[in-house]
Amino acid sequence: MSEFATIDLVPTEPVKAESPLAMCRVDVITEPKAQSAGVVVREHAFLGHLVLRGNAGDAGFVNGVEQALGVPLPLKMGPLSVDEARGVSLQWISPDEWLIIVPGGEAFAAEQRLRETLGGHFAVMNVSGGQTVLELSGPAVPEMLMKCTPYDVHPNHFPVGKGVSTTFAKTTAIIRRLDEDRWALVIRRSFADYLYRWLLDASEEFGVHVAR
Amino acid sequence: MLHIYCPHCEEYREEEEFRPKGEAHIARPQNPEETSDEEWGDYLFFRKNPRGAHHEQWYHAAGCRKFFNVTRDTVSYEILETYKVGELPTIDDTSRRAAK
């Protein structure tokens, strides 16, 4: 256990939490039902996001992360480590950086487990307030993504379970493919309003439904 | 648009994701206190600007956010190789002439 003062960023007293999209007003014409829409947008707000830094060449670190989180540490760009049942995912961001996403309210416990398990030189940061996740589903999602990013989203190049950080709509976003027709974007809070408007605008021609 | 191979992501990515960061392999003088003003000025400000193969640094700003080195032909813009920081280039103008 590293000797750090740690704090649970989610206070115990009930306070009103607001997603980055809480104030977003859009005047795109949306489809009333998900079935008739080419793109369905659903925000997964208030998930726990942690940034983990460490040495991928250190076997103790790699094993420690797997022990603490229950999913293996991905050691190269692309394939995500996901435990769907527990809602835990682990993504390679750079050779010494990973993004951990856990269900809402579990970020502090995951951070504590990592601090207890890992030793040596590493860092864990809770960035839950800094980003949010948008799930995209529907038949027109790949076509819509092609309008937004130079990254190749063709199924041959973007298999299920892959996650990349790339340019998206003149800013950056993490694109993930969850299964055959479900995708997810991890976007920054400061760009959430802009990207949400961009997404709805780009999806309008395919018919877009916003799921709550 | 250039298609650049990131040695960390191990994949070709669009130029849009990268930022050029100038000449690579510039060694800082070992003893700055004993370095003449002229040498220090060369280190800080003077760059090679060659015609032909150029070793330069690039930054994968939208991807892995790591620096790496690129050997690029400044005439044709062709990227001849990319390699990690700390490694040495295998291609320069001499080796290209020899290969012809």
Automatic annotation (TrEMBL), chain A:
* Gene Ontology molecular function terms on file: sarcosine oxidase activity
The portions of this protein that span the membrane are: none
Q: Which InterPro entries match?
A: SoxG, SoxG_het, TrmE/GcvT-like
Example of a GO biological process term = sarcosine catabolic process
NCBIfam families per UniProt = soxG
**Record-given protein name:** Sarcosine oxidase subunit gamma family protein
Identify the species of origin: Denitromonas iodatirespirans
UniProtKB/TrEMBL annotation, chain B:
Region (Disordered) residue ranges read 19-39
Annotated InterPro entries: SoxD, SoxD_sf
Provide one Gene Ontology biological process annotation: tetrahydrofolate metabolic process
Example of a GO MF term:
sarcosine oxidase activity
- The name under which this protein is listed is Sarcosine oxidase subunit delta
